[in-house]
Amino acid sequence: MQEDKNRQVCHWCLSEIIWDEEIGPETHCPHCDNELGSYRSMSIGLERGDDEAEQPGSDDSDDEDKWLDDEEDDSDKYTAEEGFRGGSRSLLAAESVIQRIIDEQLEAPECPVCREYMMEAGVQTVGGAGFAAAEPAAVGIPVLPNPFKMVWYVCPACYHTASFLSHADREEMMNRLAARS
């Protein structure tokens, strides 16, 4: 059994790692180069204490009911102020609507914070008397028309917002720059 003591399985790529007795256990997987051990591991609470060990012939349906009750109670623990989204039926329903909204959009940029797709929130007109357009010396005219429109997006996961120049104003900007070349 000395041979089994010198074997290890990478939690990331599930490769078996055999290490040398003199060197000791590996700290990084030689196959995928991820760290081994408990670092970056997550415990999901499946371990049971001795007092909770299942007795032969016990009914599993009680455990399932307790789990469902715990899930409903936990949804109140995480609020919007803490930055967490709880799990509930209404959240699942909202996620399906969010997905339909994103599917219908012309563009769906990725959130720079969490990499989820962002939903279009609306269009804002920028300009008028409160906007002073820059006129670079290289072109001699404003790069953007006054007024122009910005399309705002919101991330449904982390609520980060981002804005992009509207499609028509992008084309106008490129036409202005191309005319001055």
Topology:
Elements: H1 2-5, E1 7-9, E2 16-18, H2 60-74, H3 89-104, E3 119-126, E4 148-154, E5 161-165, H4 167-179
Describe the structure in your own words.
Residues 49-75 have a biased composition (Acidic residues). Residues 43-83 are annotated as: Disordered. The protein is of the alpha+beta class. The protein folds into 2 domains: 1-41, no CATH class; 89-179, no CATH class. It is 27% helix and 14% strand. The chain contains 4 helices and 5 strands, in the order αββααβββα. It has helices at 2-5, 60-74, 89-104, 167-179; strands at 7-9, 16-18, 119-126, 148-154, 161-165. The strands form 2 sheets. It has a 3-stranded antiparallel β-sheet with strand order 3-4-5. It is elongated, with a radius of gyration of 28 Å. The termini are far apart. Residues 74-80 have low confidence and may be disordered.
In short:
By secondary structure, the protein is of the alpha+beta class.
Summary tags:
single chain; 181 residues; alpha+beta; three-stranded antiparallel sheet; two-stranded antiparallel sheet; 4 helices; 27% helix
